[in-house]
Specification:
With 129 residues, this protein is mainly alpha-helical. It has a three-stranded antiparallel sheet with strand order 3-4-5. Strands 1-2 form a two-stranded antiparallel ribbon. The radius of gyration is 20 Å and the shape is flat. Helix content is 59%, strand content 10%.
């Protein structure tokens, strides 16, 4: 469980924090308020270090496999990758959001995806003419 930015209690579940965004925020099990991880943290430089470290550890596992010819070394790769992902998840801060802000962000996201889908369909149609 992770700390809620509203009540400061551990009320945000692991999967809720993993999948939350401004359009689908996580709800605290203690106070019922909504919070999310901002995309600048999820895709930004702040989350690059755990990502980089986990992939370097996997590269080291592959290197040790080729040097030692021991297949069991490769079993460490998924464990290292998952531990890096959960380390990254634990380090990202949660931000409070209201229900109205979440609805506005969801509508914007839906219109944005619809616009992208129309552009792709128009591009495929023009390309096939």
């Amino acid at each position: 469980m992770f700390q809620c930015p509203h009540c400061k209690a551990k009320g945000i579940g692991v999967w809720a924090k993993f999948w939350c965004g401004s359009d689908m925020p996580a709800r605290c099990s203690n106070c019922g308020e909504l919070s999310y991880v901002h995309s600048k943290y999820r895709f930004g430089f702040q989350s690059a270090w755990p990502f980089l470290v986990s992939w370097l550890a996997i590269a080291l596992c592959v290197y040790i496999f080729f040097v030692s010819n021991n297949i069991y070394v490769l079993l460490l790769a998924p464990i290292l990758w998952l531990s890096g992902r959960f380390g990254e998840l634990a380090s990202l801060p949660m931000q409070p959001i209201t229900e109205q802000e979440s609805v506005v962000n969801r509508k914007f996201g839906n219109w944005f995806i619809l616009g992208l889908a129309i552009l792709v369909i128009v591009g495929i149609t023009v390309g096939n003419l």
